[in-house]
Amino acid sequence: MGIPKTGRARLATALSYLMWVMMISAASSQGPLNPPTTSGPAVGPSPPLNGSGDPQAGMKTLGQIGPRVPISESGAISDPGSYYLANNIAVTSGNGIVIQARNVSLDLNGFTISSTANPAGGTGILIDSGSDQVSIQNGFVRGEVTYSGGVSGSFSGSGFANGIATAGIANLQGIRVSDVTISGVSGIGINFQTSELAETTYIVEGCIVRTAGGTGIRGAVVRDCIVRECGTLGVNAINVSHCSAHTTDSSTSTSTAITGLLVFNSLATSPDQGIQSFRKATNCRGIGTGQIGINGSVLLNCDGQSNSSIAIGGGLVTNCRGTSNFGSGISAFNVTNSYGENQAEFIFGGTTWGIDTDTALNCYGRSTLGDGGLRASATASFSTGRRNGGTAISADNPMACTVDGTGTVISPIATWGTP
Q: Would you tell me which of 19, 124, 227, 235 could form a disulfide with 96, CB atoms 3.0–4.6 Å apart?
């Protein structure tokens, strides 16, 4: 016989009550719920918490953990240490802050150093000669210089001449500027004059420069920065990476958006020249309205555009695309796996090809009304040219090449279509 339903219900109730009693007994055996406020002589007394969240006796103050010196007005830093702005600082002439010591950390703390000097002059933060190991971060340097006039315009207004700069060509070590925005200066936004031998001396990262009559940022290593509306150079550095730069069409000089030995993963636009890389540019896009889009010794995975000049120019060009309205798409010594196009819609003077090179491998050159699609003074291999009603391919030694459309082939070798 089984247990009746009423019996089973009573048994379940009794078991539940017994388990509750056992839990209470176990909790009571662990000791009081409010332990003493001291932990014994082995570790010393522990101060009670009063619920206010304030530090209690025995804790260190913030000053004891990391002493920092507040700055509330313009002047000089003459001793090593950690400094921070306690408020905005405004000057009517001269410099904002001058760093005259080594081993200085300056936190702008989200505040602004500004100037209304007229004419514009001085520097927002000046690093004096001999001041190695300096870090500046987290704030703003502002003047009132603006750009006006559209094409061939000019810069004018009051404020600082330079945002952050060293005093002349100083061979300093360990200078870093990060997360600083500079705007409205008549000269250079961030000016660290350096040489290739000091490749890691000056580092600028995560900064923004908006409106500078001269160069936006000059240093050794510049990364993750944005530069807009600069008069001569956007970014000028030994190593440039993950940057975006734009220069204006100033009436006083031509401009280049990015200049560097090594340029990586960057975008540059200019009414003159987009990118000038003296060694190698990788994964970049350069737009130069009046001059070359991208020019470099070695170009890899790049895109160049130009209105009136060569889109991509250099030595070794691989996996690139160049398009120009009134110039050659690509003009280089050796071109591989690339596309070049001249997009002119009417005939004009000059020499313009989709691709103009010594040797071409696996390339496509196209021209609408220019001289021709692809020209190789030496060898063109496994490549295609297009120029309807004109020269599709011109090469001394074309091997396994094809014509797209109705263009012709110019070559001293009759069997140009076979490898």
A: 124
pTM of the model: 0.81
240 Cβ contact list (under 8 Å, min separation 6): 222, 223, 258, 260, 262, 263, 264, 266
CA distance 114 to 183: 10
Q: Strand ranges (DSSP E) for 321-363?
A: 321-324, 330-336, 339-342, 353-361
- Asked if residues 91 and 75 have their Cβ atoms less than 8 Å apart, the reply is no
Concatenating the DSSP letter of every residue in 28-50 gives HTT--SS--SB--TTT-B-PPP-
CB distance 178 to 205 below 8 Å: yes
- Give the whole-angstrom CA distance, residue 385 versus residue 363: 8
In the structure encoding, which two tokens stand for residue 284, read together? 């970049």
Tokens of 275: 């990118």
Q: Is the peptide bond before 119 cis (omega within 30 degrees of 0)?
A: yes
pLDDT 10s digits, 200-243: 578 999 999 999 999 999 999 999 999 999 999 999 999 999 99
Q: What is the mean pLDDT of residues 321-346?
A: 92
Other CB atoms within 10 Å distance of the CB of residue 135: 16
Residue 418: φ, ψ to 5° = -120, 145
From CA 261, how far away is CA 207, in angstroms rounded?
A: 20
Is residue 52 helix, strand or coil? coil
CA proximity to 115, closest of 29, 184, 218, 210:
184
- Give the separation between CA 407 and CA 418, rounded to whole angstroms: 18
d(CA 20, CA 27): 11
Q: SS3 for 308?
A: coil
Is residue 214 within 8 Å of 145, Cβ to Cβ?
Answer: no
HSE value, Cβ hemisphere, 13 Å, CA-based, for 136: 31
